Amino acid sequence: MDALRLAPFEIPSEREALDAYSRVTTRVAQLLIPSVASLKVMKQVAGGRLAAGAGSAVSLTPDGFAITSAHVVAGSIEGTATFSDGHEAAYRVVGADPLSDLAVVRVQGPDLVPVRLGDADVLQVGQLVVAVGNPLGFSGSVTAGVVSAVGRSFATRSGRNARIVENVIQTDAALHPGNSGGALVTSTGDVVGINTAVVGPGIGQGLGLAVPINATTRALVQSLMADGRVRRSYLGVAGGTRPLGPKAAERTGRQRGFQVVEVPLSSPAAEAGIRPGDILIALDGNDVADVADIQRLMTADRIDRSVGAAVWRDEAIVDLEVTLRELDP
Fold it and tell me: Catalytic residues, which ones?
């Protein structure tokens, strides 16, 4: 039995743990602070008056591209970026995508210090993260915490269009107004999120949310840099997830589908014959179980394409053809 006894788990002393924590946050701060700008945003409000807003932005390329939150620059086309060394430069908004709450600006002047982008899809709950931004007008502010949860979501809206931002990162690193558009960074210095919201009853209380940096959002940012906008295809259904009954599950080989509740007139779905009450189970050969599955398929390459749609209707699978159109921005 003694031979099988496990060695005791060695817990570092409090001083050792704090020293390691301090080294990580200090190193991340040194790496990221030169790359995060404070944005002064001039917005036109009712009556033609100008109002100043604030936020943060993260340098992407040496030649001036930086990423921020779409709501930070909403209603504006230009402003001033201030860096930690005191350098100020004008910027203009290249493109904004309210449905992902991401935007790209172009800063004039000397070379920026670009960050290294990571992959939020590999984050783990409890992992150390550092938030770098400019809350309440204080430039180069750093807070640290952990990933409280992954896979969260929040709703965004642009005009009549609504969308769910997926895989949002939840963190307890303190965020304040002005942090939006700043960086959420791992201990290795990789930017894995763009801070976007403060959740709680008061400023800096509760939990923070960040839009993840992953393959999906990288593609969105590239579209904003190249075209100034994100093109999406459009189906035109509203509803939610519904479990399939035993017969439907046996016939379809699926446990859930998307229950169609509303189909706007003249939408691609309506023209294809999709009706309220249908349960959408597949689109363009891909299983569909919730709104996120549909959103992932609404890509630019499917605009004006005819794709197959399978619905469960009247105790049978009905195959339809739907021609997707471009979502009106």
Answer: 71, 101, 180
